[in-house]
Design brief:
Radius of gyration: 22 Å
Number of domains: 3
CATH topology of the largest domain: Rossmann fold
Largest sheet: 7 strands, mixed
Helix content: 10-25%
Distance between the termini: 51 Å
Order of helices and strands: EHEEEEHHEEHEEEEHEHEHEHEHEHEE
CATH superfamily of the largest domain: Vaccinia Virus protein VP39
Strand content: 25-35%
CATH architecture of the largest domain: 3-Layer(aba) Sandwich
Structural class: alpha/beta
Bound molecules: S-adenosylmethionine
Strand order of the largest sheet: 14-13-12-15-16-18-17
Number of strands: 18
Shape: globular
Length: 343
């Protein structure tokens, strides 16, 4: 477990100095400023040596730790083992999910991949497995990954007060969507919600946990993701409001009942706008529509697609918000549009 103390910003320096002096500051992680509904505070990473409490501040578990660059970079660790050409190709970043490191390694380093994995494990002693990433494929959004070191690829992590269990070789989990998962957790209170592309519950579990909709239906086509969705519903104790359905949302989405519909899928999301709009109550509701789109069209094409689909069904549209989630690929953005559909 990664430990932190949360302090008001005005107390930050005093507590940090105490942590340095008493040697319980964890220098491998960043000190972060967080904004919550209760106000702003600083998270100061500490080691086990801090005990249960520091002054008036309890030591709590940190859910999504951010690591500082280790004193030596991966390249520096490998400088005596790799040639100049190979060193130039050493990965500069990786994802840590629970106790698993996920790293992209170029072809040229094929025969050094185990050495790279061993080095990464020595840099992050709390991790136990390293997998190589080859990207995400197909409609099921399945990652292509190779186990390099370690025994298991199933992991469990806590994020924003929610538990997620998954197998990193079977399902994707995008770090870049973290803010959107948090944003979704603020919507849906007392509403009927449909998540058409539920995955393992990326967006709908945070919503179920934090906003407690009246009912939330999560639809997922990939049986492997669906199995984790069911497990995550149980782990987060939201069985009473969460109905999982395994199937194709273009065929099984319930019609005419929802106040809000989540469309957290990219590539061909616009093909599903018809069923999404039909899922809303006759009087209307809100869509959260995702699209990957060339940068120059990011503020026009997704909105036009929503309008076109709504007009075809005799509905009106009010665009509430257009947000950039992340850069998806060179020149392409992952956007989300919040739109109100009404009669
Ligand atoms: C890309 S994932 C969502 C990723 C997520 N937003 C995150 O934070 O990492 C979208 C999910 O939609 C599922 N899916 C794709 N087409 C579907 C369909 N027609 N019906 C139901 N689920 C579908 C995929 O299997 C996948 O699990």
């Amino acid at each position: 477990m990664y430990r932190v103390i949360r302090v008001p910003p005005g107390k930050g320096e005093e507590v940090r100095e105490k942590a340095v002096k008493e040697k319980f500051l964890d220098t491998s992680r960043k000190i972060r400023k967080l904004q919550t509904v209760e106000g702003a505070f600083l998270e100061i990473p500490v080691t086990e040596a801090a005990g249960e409490k520091v002054g008036d501040f309890p030591v709590v578990e940190q859910e999504d730790p951010e690591f500082l660059k280790t004193p030596m970079s991966l390249k520096e660790y490998l400088k005596d083992v790799l040639s100049e050409t190979e060193l130039a190709c050493v990965p500069a970043g990786w994802q840590i999910l629970g106790d698993i490191i996920i790293v992209g390694i170029p072809e040229i380093l094929e025969d050094k991949k185990t050495r790279i994995a061993e080095t990464l494990l020595s840099m992050y002693p709390k991790c136990r497995t390293v997998v190589r990433d080859f990207g995400i494929e197909g409609q099921f959004r399945q990652p292509k990954r190779e186990l390099l070191i370690g025994s298991g690829t199933e992991t469990f992590h806590k994020e924003h007060g929610c538990f997620f269990k998954q197998d990193v070789t079977k399902v994707m989990y995008s770090k870049g969507n973290l803010e959107e998962r948090k944003r979704m957790s603020r919507f849906g209170e007392g509403e009927v919600v449909v998540d058409m592309f539920a995955g393992i519950g990326y967006f709908s579990i945070p919503m179920a946990v934090h906003s407690r909709p009246k009912k939330i239906t999560g639809i997922e086509i990939n049986p492997e993701s669906f199995a984790y969705l069911k497990e995550n519903i149980r782990l987060n104790k939201v069985e009473d409001i969460f109905v999982p359905i395994c199937g194709d949302c273009s065929k099984v989405t319930p019609e005419g009942t929802a106040d809000r519909v989540l469309m957290g899928y990219v590539g061909t999301t616009h093909h599903y706008l018809g069923p999404a709009i039909k899922a809303l109550k006759k009087s209307g509701g809100i869509l959260h529509y995702h699209e990957t789109v060339p940068e120059s069209l990011a503020r026009t094409r997704p909105q036009e697609r929503i309008r076109k689909a709504a007009y075809t069904l005799g509905k009106k549209v009010e665009i509430l918000e257009t947000r950039r989630i992340k850069k998806y690929s060179p020149g392409v953005l992952h956007m989300v549009v919040d739109a109100r559909i009404f009669e």
